[in-house]
Amino acid sequence: MSTPLIEMDNIEKHFGPVIALGGVSFDVYAGECHCLLGDNGAGKSTFIKTMSGVHKPTGGVIRVNGQDTVFNNPRDAMNAGIATVYQDLAMIPLMSVTRNFWMGREPRKGFGPFKWIDFKTANRITFEEMERMGINLREADQAVGTLSGGERQSVAIARAVHFGAKVLILDEPTSALGVRQTSNVLATIARVRKAGIGVVFITHNVRHAMAVGDRFTVLNRGQTHGTALRGEIKPEELQDLMAGGQELAELEGSLGGTI
Amino acid sequence: MKLKKTLTAIATATLAFAGLATASTSAQAEGENFVLISHAPDSDSWWNVIKNAIKVAGDQMDVNVEYRNPPTGDLADMARIVQQTAASNPDGIIVTIADFNVLKGPIEDAVAKGIPVITINSGTVEQSHELGALMHVGQPEYDAGFGAGKRMAAKGVKSFLCVNHYITNPASVERCRGFAEAIGTDLGDQMIDTGLDPSEVKNKVSAYLNAHQDVGAILALGPNSAEPTLDALRELGMNGAIPFGTFDLSAKIADGIKKGDIDFAIDQQPYLQGYLPAVILTNYVRYGVLPSGDINSGPGFITKDNIGLVEKYAGEYR
Amino acid sequence: MTDERLKQVSSLRRAMIRPELGAICGAILVFVFFLMIAGDSGMFAPEGIKNWTVVSAQFAIIAVGACLLMIAGEFDLSVGSMIGFSGVVIAILSVHMGWPVWAAIIAAFVVAMAIGALNGFLVIKTGLPSFIVTLAFLYILRGLTIWLSITTTRQTIIGGVKEAAKGDPLAFLFGGVIFKDLFQWFGEMGWVGTFTRGTRAGQPIVEGVPMLVVWAIVLVIFGHFVLTRTRFGNWIFASGGDAKAARYVGVPVDRVKILMFMFTAFCATVFATCQVMEFGSAAADRGLLKEFEAIICVVIGGALLTGGYGSVVGAALGALIFGVVQQGLFFAGAESSLFRVFLGTILILAVIMNTYIRRMITGER
């Protein structure tokens, strides 16, 4: 646990006159789940996109295994072992589980320019990986649209893990899910973490974060408000930090602590 | 199972509908089957007269004459229709030679199969003979344009505007070329491509006349171009002031001739192009009789002097 | 380990429920129907079969391109104009400028695919719907075609290609007829009718298999293989299904889409070249409305208009249905103006059924 898998050091991102990120620092170690909490508009998605190579930071340094690195495109980040599972863009529902699973990295066989997808292998591996995630597919070529939201997230996570992700960024994986599906996804996160992968879990739900997180960082208006270890901080405090302190505390009082 | 139910429902609906489509033509005559194939797109209303003519001929001779055309006027599609017609073994085919090169193969195949063919409307007598058709019934395009040009030349016309609404058919250009050569000029850019939409035709003609104040005469190639052109002239106040001739006839053109806004209409008498081949084919198939030589159904010139009877049947039989 | 709730799906049903199901049923239905009402009209005699095969093959050639492009999430409305344009390019270069026909054909393919690439490039770079961009090219190309042919030859129809193409190897590849000897033998055996008089007496009425049909079959097999079996095919699905999601996993969506625009242009040019070689002339009005006919075939074949879903085999069956209905109604003696009523009805029924099938497969709601 000496060097973090990825370290975002004082990252800034400006869109014209708008400062979306004003010096955010964040890191992930192998085998931990680091939760990034923030309200809507806090800059979470800009931060993820910077970490996964979609945006280039305006300022600051990204280090992978201690080395300064520049991501020119998502492919660079993927090659560095950083995989991102987006909330709604995880899967293409019209396509089969196998096709989704291998999209962009299809296994091929054949010779010369005549190469085709090795569907036998692809289907078998998909099936096995899904089983490891605790999902029983009817068949590997059933469409993703027939799966539930939680299962889709799990397919995306399984895909990332299979392709050697060292860091897994999960963008609000639980926000659109029901209770049962949420617990499935959280169980999956726990399983992945145990396998030695660093998980970045983005959410605005404190209870979900507390369930699996080892460390917690709160993002508010493009800045971090410090990082806390598990057990050092109470859910209410996190909630306060997310909302920028004061106002929510008052609001919470009037709502009788239901948020 | 729901899927099966849906399938059955769809199948039944399709069959029922198709049955309706075929039943509607069950009024077939007992006699011979002929097919008339034209090159005109669906939007060309001029062919109505020919459709009426084959109906009259069909009733009189107790034969069935079917009208077919490529919906968009695409001649390659027309060639397919000729092939398909030949494959259905009709007793005779009546076809326009819209383009000799394209239709040569299919028509020759039909002739080689032993199907009697009469060519009509577009094309020349020579082409008709080369294809092995029995005869040609039509109006020589270049000559018709030339004849119209001669009439204009007599008035001292030196330049003109050819309003072409079906420029993709080579016969249309022949008409304009004949006219141009009769008045002793080169066609050059005196022909405009207007398309079939009436308001577009009108606007293009107005624009051309505004840009070329010295245009000596106007030639329209049919009702589709003549009617909007007439509107344009009336709007510009140039009706009657500029010599205006057109091919073919319609109710509105007849009216224009009566009012003196249109000098003449070149009538190729389409009725004859539909009626005569049907009658001739029937007699040929039944009794083996065939008039020798080809038939020029036009040009006839319609002017203020002979408009009376023409007007009564314009768009129907004239 | 299996889930007991998913067990009741029989293997038959699984094999049945596929994107092409609607088109397969439609094709069977259409054949049965016409066998019943037009079975003795010559439609299923060799000449009649050749007839609807050729027409269907024409549709199939452009449908393959339109199908892959539609699955990649884009439209091309300039297909019809492209057919007219490529044909006129070949005719002008070979007849008017005196190029060898093979060079004219290659040039037409290069120009057409460059225009296809431009179409794709504009769609990608501007982010405008391909519907609009290619609609513009529908007009641009048609206008250019008329202008080109009028200014170089003073006509809108350019003949003489057949004479120029005599003995040209590439011309045969598009306009030739193969298996002539076989069909001659068929004729002698009496399986195919022969001409009874004239200069061609003794020759079979169907002289062989036109290259047009060969092209259609080759393109359908190629398209089906690429789409379902290759990595690139997976990218086509992904680009049309969700371009953003595809980009995030590293699929080169822009390249896929531009290539598909080029392939559509390629198919249109194959169509045009076959037509020019068969009829010996090119005309400025060739290919009118063909873009919609291609799209209709594709939609009957089960493809989703918004992309990401479809089948090349389905599109080919759509083309077959289209061709057989068009020809069959004539053989059945139906009023020809009713053809489009029938076609429209089939289209609606096909779309309803395909939507239903697709929902079963993909779990859409």
UniProtKB/TrEMBL annotation, chain A:
SMART domains noted in UniProt: AAA
Q: Which InterPro entries match?
A: AAA+_ATPase, ABC_carbohydrate_import_ATPase, ABC_transporter-like_ATP-bd, P-loop_NTPase
Keywords from the named record: ATP-binding, Nucleotide-binding
Keyword Nucleotide-binding appears in the UniProt entry: yes
Stretches assigned to the ABC transporter domain? 6-246
Superkingdom of origin: Bacteria
Protein's UniProt keywords contain Translocase: no
Q: Where is the signal peptide?
A: none
Single Gene Ontology MF annotation: ATP binding
Under PANTHER family, the record lists: CARBOHYDRATE TRANSPORT ATP-BINDING PROTEIN MG119-RELATED, SUGAR ABC TRANSPORTER ATP-BINDING PROTEIN
Identify this protein by name: ABC transporter ATP-binding protein
Recorded source organism is Thalassospira profundimaris
Lineage of the organism: Bacteria, Pseudomonadati, Pseudomonadota, Alphaproteobacteria, Rhodospirillales
Automatic annotation (TrEMBL), chain C:
Q: One Pfam family this chain carries?
A: BPD_transp_2
TM helices/strands, residue ranges: 21-39, 51-70, 77-95, 101-124, 131-150, 170-187, 208-227, 258-280, 292-325, 337-357
GO terms for MF: transmembrane transporter activity
UniProt keywords (A-Z) are: Cell inner membrane, Cell membrane, Membrane, Sugar transport, Transmembrane, Transmembrane helix, Transport
Q: Does the keyword Cytoplasm apply?
A: no
Q: Which InterPro entries match?
A: ABC_transp_permease
**UniProt topology in membrane:** Multi-pass membrane protein
CC annotations in GO: plasma membrane
Q: Where in the cell is it found?
A: Cell membrane
Q: Principal localization?
A: membrane
Q: Tell me, what does this protein do in biology?
A: Part of the binding-protein-dependent transport system for D-xylose. Probably responsible for the translocation of the substrate across the membrane.
Protein name as annotated: Xylose transport system permease protein XylH
